[in-house]
Structure of Phosphatidate cytidylyltransferase:
Amino acid sequence: MKQRIITAIVALAIFIPILILGGVWLEVAAAVLAVIAMSEIFIMRKRIIVSSSFFVSAIGVLLVTFPDSYFRWLPSFISRLDLIYIAVAALLLVTVATKNRTTYDDAAISALSIFYIGTGFHNLIAVRNDAGLDTLLFALIIVWLTDSGAYFVGRAMGKHKLWPAISPNKTWEGSIGGNVVALIFAAIYLQFFPQMYSFWPMMGIALVLSVFGQLGDLIESALKRYYGVKDSGKILPGHGGILDRFDSLLLVLPLVHLFGLISLH
């Protein structure tokens, strides 16, 4: 527990100023986190990260992560999606070059990870730099309070398992408790930092973000259970890896975009 607390304090001392500064600071941080998260996918699968497959995957995840402004130099007939396609095609070519030591399945997992990880971190940048710090904090704190509320309510009252095949410690009581804690926070937060929609639509969005935050956690749990690992990585002592800490946000932050909270600002 002591190690977890120390790691959390150090991580927040680094992460919070970057969120406040935004701009290029956050863009660089998100890019680094995305590449580390991609490396965790490779390590969980017991694949070598010093390889052509990882190099192409890292390039691919950066192409998805970076903001649109990074691609203004492209000629009009080429889009970011074209570059991502080239990266995916390169993954397929690696299967030929390695004589199937890297397989089609390997390429498919890398391609899926490129979009899963890259889209999440892309929207971390977009929410902060385009919608503003108050909107990003709205999403972040909902996720954090859902997680904390679910943990404490689950420990105090949890009896009915939520999804034991994937995450045996989670309970329905904890899940609902996390939603309630998040909604209480959202109601208070919106009084001081109103968002683009009126109160009740934002409360509905808060509930959806809270639910999908827990689903993001379950996705990561399913991934780790499938590969037989406890944590996605060891970069954060006591907390695991980057995917362990950002699993909920990789699902929640794209939803902030889909709800129009970025484009409306």
About this structure: The radius of gyration is 19 Å. The CA atoms of residues 183 and 204 lie 9 Å apart. The beta strands are 161-163, 167-171.
